[in-house]
Design goal:
homodimer; 139 residues; mainly alpha; Arc Repressor Mutant, subunit A; 2 domains; 8 helices; 2 strands; 55% helix; 11% strand; globular; DNA-binding
Chain lengths: 139, 139
DNA sequence: GGTCTGAACTTGCTTTTTGCAAGCGCCATG
DNA sequence: CATGGCGCTTGCAAAAAGCAAGTTCAGACC
C-alpha cells in the first residue's frame, strides 16, 4: 500500500484519523472552537501558538471540506465569517478530552483547571453534555 | 508566545499533546505497538503506510526520549531490538480508542471489526482492561 | 460615488521537514 | 572469517511550513 495522499487515508481507523488531524495545527483550531469560544479567522490567528495565516487558511479549508466545520457570514457584520463545528466536528470531543486527560497527567506545567480535570475523571459524560450544550446555545 | 519548538510545547493540554503526536506517523507506531503486536524496527517499516526509515528512526528516538516507549535488546537474537510501550505510552489507549470510535463512525470504508466497535461502545473499560492485560503478558 | 478601514485571505520567497535510495556497522550463523 | 539480516545513517530532491508583504471585498464615512 502507501503512496496515496494523506487525505485519502482510510480503512484503518488510526490512519483515517491521522489523515484528518495528523498535523500540529488542526486540533488547535478545533480546541479554539470547542473550548475557547473562538469563531473568527482573526481569533485563530491570535491564539498564542502563532499559526501562519496561509496555514490557517489551508486548515480551515480542509476542515470545511471534510465537513467538520461550517462557514457562514456573520449576520451582525457581513464582512466577517463565522466558523462553527458541525456534528462531525463536535464528535471529536471524546478525542480532545482524552488528550486533555493524558496531558494533565504527564505535563507537569499543565494549565488545565484542576476542577475541569476532576470532573473529566469523575463524570466525563456529564461534562461532555455540559460542553456540548454550551456550544449549541451560543449566540 | 509561540516561537518555541514543538517539543517544548506545554501548558495547554491540547498543545502538549500536539507537541508529542502532532504528526502523521507517531500514532501509527503506537497503533502497531498497541493493537498489532509489532515490536521490531522492521515490523514498523513494513506496516502498510510506508514510513521512511529515517523518519521511523527519528520518531522512535522521540518516543523513547519522551518516555513513551522502551528499547531493549531481544534476548533471543541480540542483533535485534525490541520496542515496547511504557506506562505513559499505554496511557494513550483512551486517545487511540476515541480516534477509532470517531473513525468507525465517519469512515465509510473503515476496517475496524464490528465486534470491536460494539464492545468499545458498550463497555470501553472492560475492553481497555483486556487490551492492557494482553500487552502486559506478551512473551 | 470616492475613499478609508478592518477582516480574510493570497502570494512570493526562505527555511525546515519529509521522502527516497543508497550505504554502513554490528551481531549471528555457517 | 565470509555472508546476510537488521537497525539505522547519509545525501540529495521534493514538499510543507514560516514569514512578510500584498490583494480583495464589505461596510462606514464623507
Amino acid at each position: 500500500m502507501a503512496r496515496s495522499k494523506r487525505e485519502d487515508w482510510r480503512g484503518c481507523p488510526i490512519r483515517f484519523g491521522m489523515g484528518h488531524f495528523g498535523d500540529p495545527w488542526t486540533l488547535l483550531i478545533i480546541r479554539d472552537l470547542m473550548f475557547r469560544g473562538k469563531r473568527y479567522y482573526s481569533d485563530f490567528l491570535g491564539s498564542g501558538e502563532g499559526i501562519a495565516s496561509n496555514i490557517l487558511a489551508d486548515r480551515l479549508k480542509r476542515l470545511h471540506s471534510a465537513g467538520m466545520i461550517d462557514k457562514a457570514r456573520d449576520p451582525d457584520n457581513r464582512s466577517k465569517f463565522i466558523y462553527t463545528l458541525t456534528a462531525k466536528g463536535l464528535d471529536l470531543m471524546p478525542i480532545m478530552l482524552a488528550i486533555i486527560d493524558w496531558s494533565a497527567t504527564y505535563d507537569a506545567a499543565t494549565e488545565a483547571p484542576p476542577e475541569f480535570i476532576a470532573q473529566l475523571r469523575e463524570d466525563p459524560d456529564s461534562l461532555m453534555r455540559t460542553l456540548r450544550a454550551r456550544l449549541l446555545e451560543e449566540p
